[in-house]
Amino acid sequence: MNSRDRVLAALGHRQPDRVAVDLGAHRSSGIAAMAYPRLREALGLPRRPTRIYDPIQQLAVVDDDVLDRFGVETIELGRAFALDDKDWVDWALPDGTPAQLPAWAVPTREADRWVYYSKTGHPIAVMPDGALYFDQTYWPFLEHDDFDAIEAGMDEILWSAIASPPGPLVAGKDGDRRLVEGAKRLREGTDRAIVGLFGGNLFEFGQFYYRSDNFFMLLAGQPDRAHEFLEKLTAIHLNNLERYLGLVGPYIDIIAFGDDLGTQNGPTLSPAMYREMFKPHHARMWRRAKELADVKVMLHCCGGVQPLLHDLIDAGMDAINPVQITCRGMDPAGLKHDFGHRLTFWGGGCDTRHVLSKATPDEIRRHVKELLAIWAPGGGFVFQQVHNILADVPPENIIAMYDAVAEFEG
User: Fold this and answer.
1) CA 329 to chain CA mean position, Å
2) Per-domain boundaries in the chain
3) pLDDT tier at 171 (50, 70, 90 boundaries)?
4) Measured CA distances, 192 to 22, 23, 79, 406 (Å)
5) 31-49: per-residue pLDDT in tens?
């Protein structure tokens, strides 16, 4: 099997010849830019500029030599873009390490913090000195909502206004052509499975527009208005989905949606509210994605969402990440037994809350192999750690984690 075959076998619940591996193919399977230079040094790889793929979370572009070293079989569509030095601007990470940001995503320095402003001048994200990420600071519907302004409001929200590659490189009248050319070039140049990031967030975008507390009150106290908001938001997502998959559908294997629906202790909302408010809209988007292209639908969904899995699968979800195994109800053996024949677990391969940053390399190897023995049989599993590798993770622990996957024989 080549890499794409291996990933598609896992998604098809067929046993691949070895465990399929992901690193950095979406914005919750990556590595913190502060940890990345230390990893390269520990691997004995030459120094390269640390390029920050995701400015909000401060995630690094993972170079091909690292992907090769760890046997990574996935790649994100954005890697086909921002390939020239002129697309990047020198910057410094919170610990002072030199790095580069996308030329279109350079924040403003103000006193003891970095600030991102929207095109209309609102401060939409802030990273104070001592912090490692940008946090949202502006909510377009905080004081007053206007459903005719939903689309324009996306330029006022950090998660949609601060673009990762390809970013504005595919904007303008020639944008469609550049997007297709880049996607085609990547497809022809790799046998890795290609993940196309789309988003299509509903529950989260409600929080991005209203702020979490206000959106929860809208759902509970004004359900008719919440329905109207979600209907209009879904229509915008569907319109974007038509364009996106109409252009890149032939060149990607997986389309990644996002909606964090869980907390450490269980779902953020009840199964009944999910079925009423969100499931119909998820189903419309995921069904349309499969009509437009031969793709599998992956949902990034943090937290203890076991009570929602039946409905998410019914709505069309093929794979879930990051599989947050320390949350209530997210026991790997139980999940594999109950859902393994219908759902691919894209993650859950190493606990990042207690193990990856704190355990010894030998402990990490044992931990990973124990989890692989649960997840790997029968396919339905792509290895990644639980969410991103954070800035404090020692490089020897990262190496031990991926070496354990390579050593595993199921």
Assistant:
1) 22
2) 3-39+58-91+165-407
3) confident
4) 10, 12, 12, 17
5) 999 999 999 999 999 999 9
Contact 158, 56 (CB under 8 A): yes
Q: How far is it, in rounded angstroms, from Cα 307 to Cα 303?
A: 11
Express each pLDDT in 173-226 by its tens digit: 899 999 999 999 999 999 999 999 999 999 999 999 999 999 999 999 999 999
Whether 282 and 319 have beta carbons less than 8 Å apart is answered as no
pTM (two decimals):
0.97
Going by C-alpha positions, the residue among 348, 351, 294 that lies closest to residue 318 is 294
Residue 290: its H or E element? helix 279-292
Q: Which residues of 54-82 are buried (b: 16+ CB within 10 A; e: fewer)?
A: bbbbbbbbbbeebbebbbbbbbbbbbbbb
Q: What's the CATH number for 3-39+58-91+165-407? A: 3.20.20.210
Backbone angles phi, psi at 319, to 5 degrees: -145, 145
- Determine how β-strand 266-267 pairs with β-strand 262-263: antiparallel
Cis peptide before 166, with omega less than 30 degrees from 0? Answer: yes
**Two structure tokens written together for 9:** 């076998």
Between strands 193-199 and 74-76, the pairing is parallel
- Amino acid, res. 347: G
Whole-angstrom distance, CA of residue 281 vs CA of residue 237: 10
Closest Cα to residue 197, out of 19, 385, 24, 325? Answer: 24
Q: Give the DSSP per-residue string, 66-89.
A: HHHHTT--EEEGGGGS--SGGGEE
The tokens describing 254, both together, are 């997986």
Tokens of 262: 């869980």
Phi, psi for 7 (deg, rounded to 5): -65, -45
In whole angstroms, how far apart are CA 234 and each of 128, 214, 221, 285, 367? 34, 20, 21, 8, 40
DSSP state of 278: I
Q: Taking 70 as the threshold, does the pLDDT of residue 410 lie above it?
A: no
Burial class, 143, CB count within 10 angstroms (exposed 0-12 / middle 13-18 / buried 19+)? exposed
